[in-house]
């Protein structure tokens, strides 16, 4: 169990739901909110930087971290492993900042077990047809790949009930406002603000 002054936010969504756009804007706009950097065994893609996009490690290092309990959660996706480093996360949260983790549903559920008060947010597409249209519109996937992504999206959507907040990304601005409001509302929770209230009370 992690003891943490900062809040932990977990966001998941099917591929094509617009999660990356929302997450990038949120981290750029909201003070004291940092994006979690995962460890991965996959090779860097062009333009990716170690320590900024991911912590790139080999299989042996990843295995060692698993044995040593070095991950809060880890999963294997498409033959590569991804994990949230325990020491990195604890260090960030201890400084009082909030951390936003962008992880798929299996990893999100594992993290919830490790951090029960993590706030879980799921980004929904407006419909199956809209998601298919977005995937085809990107022009990156074959018909077969689109079909695989849609099948996986259905599997992910079946887990929506495990999340605390559901945001439909139909209109980007509306979705962003809902996403941002979750962060601010969580920060204002009584459990988080009790010490501040006590300090103010003592001044009377």
Automatic annotation (TrEMBL):
Its EC number is 2.7.4.8. Belongs to the guanylate kinase family. This is Guanylate kinase. It comes from the Bacteria. It catalyses: GMP + ATP = GDP + ADP. It is found in: Cytoplasm. PANTHER family: GUANYLATE KINASE (PTHR23117:SF13), GUANYLATE KINASE-RELATED (PTHR23117). Residues 6-184 form the Guanylate kinase-like domain. It comes from Geothrix rubra. InterPro entries: GK/Ca_channel_bsu, Guanylate_kin-like_dom, Guanylate_kinase, Guanylate_kinase_CS, P-loop_NTPase. Keywords: ATP-binding, Cytoplasm, Kinase, Nucleotide-binding, Transferase.
């Amino acid at each position: 169990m992690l003891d943490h002054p900062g809040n932990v936010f977990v966001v998941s969504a099917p591929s094509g739901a617009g999660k990356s756009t929302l997450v990038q804007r949120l981290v750029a706009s909201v003070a004291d909110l940092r994006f979690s950097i995962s460890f991965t065994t996959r090779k860097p893609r062009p333009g990716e930087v170690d320590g900024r996009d991911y912590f790139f490690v080999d299989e042996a290092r990843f295995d060692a971290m698993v044995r040593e309990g070095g991950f809060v959660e880890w999963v294997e996706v498409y033959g590569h492993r991804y994990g949230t480093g325990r020491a990195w996360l604890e260090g960030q949260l201890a400084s009082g900042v909030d951390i936003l983790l962008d992880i798929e549903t299996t990893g999100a559920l594992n993290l919830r077990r490790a951090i029960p008060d993590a706030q879980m947010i799921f980004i929904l597409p407006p419909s199956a047809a809209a998601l298919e249209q977005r995937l085809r519109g990107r022009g990156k996937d074959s018909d077969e790949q689109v079909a695989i992504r849609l099948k996986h999206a259905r599997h992910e959507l079946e887990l929506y009930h495990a999340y605390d907040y559901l945001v439909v990304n139909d209109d980007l601005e509306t979705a962003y406002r809902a996403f941002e409001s979750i962060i601010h509302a969580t920060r204002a929770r009584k459990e988080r603000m009790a010490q501040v209230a006590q300090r103010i009370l003592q001044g009377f």
